[in-house]
Design goal:
The chain has about 220 residues and is α+β, with helices and mostly antiparallel strands. It contains 9 helices and 4 strands, in the order βαβαββααααααα. The protein has a 4-stranded mixed sheet, with helices on one face. Helix 4 runs parallel beside helix 7 (about 160-175) and helix 7 (about 160-175) packs across helix 8. The longest helix has 23 residues, at about 125-150. The radius of gyration is 17 Å and the shape is globular. The termini are far apart.
């Protein structure tokens, strides 16, 4: 493996990028960050330069160990395989399946329905659309977490599921979703935001965070 410092292509507000920033922080992996502004210049992700990094023209992308990876969960799985401590997937097969289920529920069943590309197509009713998509997903997630949660999403150890939960709750808050019906989600999110890895990776504390949004 090459010893060059990893390079993360990220946008401060991207929930997919935030998942990876949390994983890197938890595993103590230092990296260089290259901001990709999804709104400026018509979207810097559409530049020829970035398309060479990630043909899907999405963040995050991570250059690490001589390869370039995209898709947040694929990146996190690679970090888990190469830097196994602290563990983000439980050893117990049932708990591991539950972690993957919750992560997939968020990254496949909620977030893609309210991401930037979709909202552009929806137009004027984009806030209402995002609220409905998130609320529908959170109703199911709340029910699931009532069976799996301890201190965090699955038991009392931080897992890949938690890395997906916090950014999605942030999206919900940004779209002014009423969080009252989701006490388990709210409790877990609050506990996770007290952890240093979640704080340093927060959108309000990134190099590309606009001054008015900085913590």
């Amino acid at each position: 493996m090459t010893s060059e410092k990893p390079i993360l292509y990220s946008y401060f507000r991207s929930s997919c990028s935030w998942r990876v920033r949390i994983a890197l922080a938890l595993k103590g992996i230092s990296y260089d960050l290259v901001p990709v502004n999804l709104l400026k210049d018509g979207g810097q992700q559409f530049s020829a330069e970035f398309k060479a990094v990630n043909p899907m023209q999405q963040v995050p992308a991570l250059k690490i160990d001589g390869i370039t990876l995209s898709q947040s969960l694929a990146i996190i799985h690679y970090l888990e395989d190469t830097h196994p401590n602290p563990r983000l997937l439980p050893q117990d097969p049932k708990k591991r399946a539950q972690v993957r289920m919750i992560a997939d529920h968020i990254v496949s069943g909620i977030q893609p329905l309210q991401n930037l590309n979709v909202l552009k197509q929806i137009g004027e009713k984009k806030t209402e659309w995002a609220q409905n998509c998130i609320a529908s997903g959170f109703q199911a997630l709340e029910q699931i977490l009532q069976h799996t949660a301890g201190h965090y999403c699955v038991g009392d150890e931080v897992s890949m599921a938690d890395l997906c939960l916090v950014p999605q709750v942030s999206n919900a808050e940004r779209f002014k979703v009423d969080m009252g019906p989701y006490p388990t989600i709210t409790r877990i999110n609050k506990a996770l935001l007290e952890l240093e890895a979640f704080r340093v990776s927060h959108p309000s504390r990134q190099p590309d965070t606009p001054a008015e949004l900085r913590a």
